[in-house]
Amino acid sequence: MDSCVTAAVARSLGHDLCLLHADYGQRTEAREAQAFHAIAEHYQVPHKRRLVVSLEGLRAVGGSALTDRAIPLPEGALDREGIPASYVPFRNAHLLSLATSWAEVLGARDIFVGFVEEDSSGYPDCREAFLRAFEAAARLGTRPETRPTFHAPLMHRDKAAIVRLGVSLGAPLALTWSCYDGETVACGRCDSCLLRLRGFHGAAVPDPIPYARVPERFKVG
Amino acid sequence: MDSCVTAAVARSLGHDLCLLHADYGQRTEAREAQAFHAIAEHYQVPHKRRLVVSLEGLRAVGGSALTDRAIPLPEGALDREGIPASYVPFRNAHLLSLATSWAEVLGARDIFVGFVEEDSSGYPDCREAFLRAFEAAARLGTRPETRPTFHAPLMHRDKAAIVRLGVSLGAPLALTWSCYDGETVACGRCDSCLLRLRGFHGAAVPDPIPYARVPERFKVG
């Protein structure tokens, strides 16, 4: 959902879109890839401007509940302390590296990412401080004319504000997928479902995707 | 060769070695993988401490003479201005990201890289300034206890000094491969061969690997 709303923001600013999807061995990759292409179709992004890449290294390294089925997914509460088991070690550096390499070859400068620090699971690689440090590294590690600029329009918004922004921009939220576990219906129990449901509830907008169950406190309307 | 001498330095400092090799679609990947495993055998690094990963994204993105055969390899001169066609866009960020993710899962802190700024092809992602900026990003983008530290013991040495250091540490230089083009004999024409041959010549040490030709000015003994 965050990626989709971010794409809507980039389009609303007049950018031509090039879209990146990564398979890093996450449980719901097939469903995410389906969502990626559906959103790309919605925005009429041709296949040559879509990059789908396997980050085999993250799967090989493991160390996360998203990539190693021996590690259980956290469930049912968003108020835990610390970094949850769904953290994929330094995942976003791999995504940003890919985006930077692709931008350098395309001659693109503006890289949009759906990072959210404000209302997130507490992943260290989603924070503004990390993104700005990576941007500094990316400018030093590429050709002088590349000068990548990272934009994270959702960074300091809560999920309700993200839902409202998506609705206001006509983002195709029904095509998005957030659940860490299910691929046909969303589980309604994992952190990602709970964050999303809390956002739709806060925005007083019904979530258009199907859930196995919705906790009573997040029911809308 | 730089990776091998770097491994020798890390071992000489008493570290246990975990070794990373990446296939990013480079022309000589198979020969490099063979060298990687031979060096790992030399240092008795077990298979579970070797990580061999395909960086499919760099192959997909292209934009380099090393990964796209439609782009010719630069040959025959080391005094060109600018960044050569063998530069792989932001490649080292992908390697550093992988190393950081793996270190985080292993609980390792010290990451050694064979970057050389002093006597190099002029790649922006081999420079000390880039490495330090990436290190800052890696500390912000991982768990607080991870705190990766990057070591680049060759950064400010010329190739002759690297050869001398390798010899003094007993590094298995005969097992290394540097050529961008050949996989049976080194071409003796690409930038990587010329840099290497100039280093051995400067150190007055014969290069133990086979060459199709060695330019007269770099012949030793």
Which features would summarize this protein structure in a list?
two-stranded parallel sheet, two-stranded parallel ribbon, Rossmann fold, globular, homodimer, mainly alpha, 221 residues
Instruction: Determine the fraction of residues in helical runs of chain A and give it as a percent range.
Output: 25-40%
- What's the number of structural domains of chain A? 1
The fraction of residues assigned to DSSP E strands of chain A is 5-15%
Report the C-alpha radius of gyration of chain A, rounded. Answer: 17 Å
Average pLDDT number of chain A: 94
Number of helices of chain A: 7
Number-wise, the strands of chain A total 4
Largest sheet of chain A: 2 strands, parallel
| Architecture per CATH nomenclature, i.e. the level-2 architecture of chain A | 3-Layer(aba) Sandwich
Element order of chain A: H for helix, E for strand: HEHEHHEHEHH
Q: What oligomeric state do these chains adopt?
A: homodimer
Biggest interface between chains = A-B, 43 and 43 residues
Distance between the amino and carboxyl termini of chain A:
21 Å
Write the CATH homologous superfamily of chain A: HUPs
Which class do the helix and strand fractions of chain A yield? mainly alpha
Structure, explained:
2 copies of one chain form a homodimer. By secondary structure, chain A is mostly helical. Chain A has one domain (2-71, 84-218): 3-Layer(aba) Sandwich (Rossmann fold). Chain A has 7 helices and 4 strands. Chain A has helices spanning 2-12, 29-42, 56-61, 91-106, 128-140, 159-168, 191-203; strands spanning 19-23, 50-54, 110-112, 149-151. In chain A, the strands form 2 sheets. Chain A has a two-stranded parallel sheet with strand order 1-2. In chain A, strand 1 (19-23), helix 2 (29-42) and strand 2 (50-54) form a beta-alpha-beta unit. In chain A, helix 6 (159-168) crosses helix 7 (191-203). The radius of gyration of chain A is 17 Å and the shape is globular. The model of chain A has no long low-confidence stretch (mean pLDDT 94). Chain A binds chain B through residues 22, 51, 53-58, 60-63, 83, 87, 89-94, 96-98, 100-102, 104-105, 124-125, 127, 129-130, 133-134, 136-138, 140-144, and chain B through 22, 51, 53-58, 60-63, 83, 87, 89-94, 96-98, 100-102, 104-105, 124-125, 127, 129-130, 133-134, 136-138, 140-144.
